[in-house]
Amino acid sequence: MSFSIPCSPIVSVTWLAAAIAPTTPSKSVVVIDCRFSLIDPNQGKRLYTNGHIPGAYHLDLSQDLSGPVEHHGGRHPLPDVNQLTNTLRQLGVDGSQTWVVVYDDSRFAFASRLWWLMRYLGHDRVVVLDGGFSAWREAGYPISTTSPPLQEGQFLPRLQSHQVVDIEVVAQHQTLTTVALVDSREKDRYRGEREPIDPIAGHIPGAMNLPWTDITTPNGFIQPISFHQKRWQPLQNKTAIIVYCGSGVTACVNLLSLEVAGLFQGKLYPGSWSDWCSYPERPIASLLKTQYP
């Protein structure tokens, strides 16, 4: 192996360049392009076709990293485990030796979803590229328009079901002082001032707001470790940290931040706000009106 073992879930473009050097043994590193746009779902694939990190595969948020949308369950339900497992095997992921490197160009918004899914499947050898594709390109590294051939990996999932909670668990724990419920959306969506996607504005009663966009600089680089430690320090004595966003995607950026801070793993509510507000009987809180207890 011609590259160093990363000591953080975040790696630099310099590290990745060494990791994908021709001298690196096959299947040691699998790179996955996660670029996507919620406004234009086909944009990620177009961007990948126009240029990507050499050897990288592309996985689509809607088609590969999410399951079918139903009336309840949110806008981006978790994908079928068997289907995602087969996809990862075709990319050459081997559970015993492969480092999976994921990247996007959206401040970890979509790469962190795959990072979390890999951890959920029990694969800890997964890291996120700091700065994303833009950082790679601006560093002068080569760009490819060739899609690598599919491979045959021996990936076997070890599902970490304790990392996920459903709407009933959230409802039972949302007012407990020992549990922190964290809304990862932008402040104005949390306050109920704006809701561009879901039919109802507001947040889950009892939730605090820690926006996912604070995790990186505007150009997509991770904030210093001290930032993450300070961010989560007030919650370190909680028995559980449940994180949600609009549909269970950008909440994973906050889960990544928890990992960078060196604290215990949080739990994801995959359905998030889009699931919660699909039940008319569920209470809704907003800073624009009287809040529920």
Describe this structure in words.
The chain is of the alpha/beta class. It is built from 10 helices and 9 strands. It has helices spanning 13-19, 43-50, 81-90, 111-120, 132-138, 167-173, 187-191, 225-232, 251-261, 272-276; strands at residues 10-11, 29-33, 57-58, 99-103, 126-129, 179-183, 208-209, 240-244, 267-268. It is globular, with a radius of gyration of 19 Å. The N and C termini lie far apart (55 Å).
Output the keywords:
five-stranded parallel sheet; 293 residues; Oxidized Rhodanese, domain 1; four-stranded parallel sheet; alpha/beta; 2 domains
Helices and strands, with pairings:
Blueprint lengths: L9 E2 L1 H7 L9 E5 L9 H8 L6 E2 L22 H10 L8 E5 L7 H10 L5 E4 L2 H7 L28 H7 L5 E5 L3 H5 L16 E2 L15 H8 L7 E5 L6 H11 L5 E2 L3 H5 L17
Parallel strand pairs: 1-5, 2-3, 2-4, 4-5, 6-7, 6-8, 8-9
Helix pairs in contact: 4-9, 8-9
Query: Going across the major beta sheet, what is the strand order?
Result: 1-5-4-2-3
Uncertain stretches: none
Helix content: 25-40%
Q: In terms of structural class, how would the helical and strand content be classed?
A: alpha/beta
Average of pLDDT: 94
Work out the radius of gyration: 19 Å
Shape, per Cα inertia axes: globular
Report how far the terminal alpha carbons are from each other: 55 Å
Q: What is the fold named in CATH at topology level of the largest domain?
A: Oxidized Rhodanese, domain 1
Largest sheet: 5 strands, parallel
Q: Number of DSSP strands?
A: 9
Residues in β-strands, percent: 5-15%
CATH superfamily of the largest domain: Rhodanese-like domain
